[in-house]
Amino acid sequence: MLLRWLSLAAFLLAVAPAQADQPTWGAFLEGVYEQGRSEGISEATLLEALNGLQPIQRVIELDRRQPEGTVTFEEYMASRVPDELVAEARRRYAEDLPLLTVIGERYGVDPQYIVALWGLETRFGTYTGGFDVVASLATLAWDPRRSDYFRGELMRALHILDQGHIARPDMKGSWAGAMGQSQFMPSSFVSYAVDWDLDGHKDIWTTRGDVFASAANYLSSAGWREGMPWGGRVTLPAGFDSGLAGNKSTLPLAEWQAIGIAFVGTPPAVAAGEPASLILPGGPGGPAYLVFDNYRTILKWNRSDYFGMSVVTLADAVAGR
Length: 321
What we know:
The protein has a five-stranded antiparallel beta sheet with strand order 4-6-7-3-5. It has helices at residues 2-14, 25-38, 43-50, 57-64, 73-80, 83-95, 97-107, 111-122, 133-142, 147-162, 186-192, 208-221, 253-258, 293-301, 305-318; strands at residues 131-132, 172-173, 231-235, 250-252, 262-263, 275-279, 288-291.
């Protein structure tokens, strides 16, 4: 027991306040209690969620860890969308097609993208993270680096518990507080989670209908256009100015084509005036893609082009393209 407390003391010293006015852990928790009470969270929920809570050293380490090296686009895609994941995604899609079809029609979202996000985020719900979400968020809210953001996420997590969507011991997720099979942060849960089976719980942890509908609701709310191609791989003309690339540089498709950019294979069936962006996820000299609004919608889920390309690649494979 003494060793445990000495270890904790060493940890607390290691993450000592970077600002003179940062509270102690105890004072921080008391502030969370008071804020929770003022926001109408029940005393029972606050006691169950916060009593005896301690900061998690590993969460601080992960939040502050710097990347150890650069992964190329090709390496990322090979590791994130391997053949076995494609095969499993196709199997899951066929298995859940009736449910996926109904949800896709309800929200106007192509079902293969729901499956792709499900597979890439949690390997179809088989790995959702083993961190205590409340403890993780509290640790990050206490740490000064991004305290305001995580304080908001912590309070939303407490509201989710108070509303009975998940039991306190079952609220598990990533070290950063992303939860369930769809890996929603609490703010995304509050905005987009759906009780598809109408049992009174928005259960993104174990109820497949709720998982699928929540992901579809997110994409729909972010601007998804059903049936619209995401884009496609292209070739570039000699001497192309790579400074024109990037998701913030948008031109009508016809203008890209006029400067010599051409799709590989059959061009997507979109109007010449459709706004498109050219992306070079692997940098100049790597593969090039023209992307449309649905691709940019996926980036609202995760703003990485590596992630976006893994989603559309897996979705195309699921749909047989």
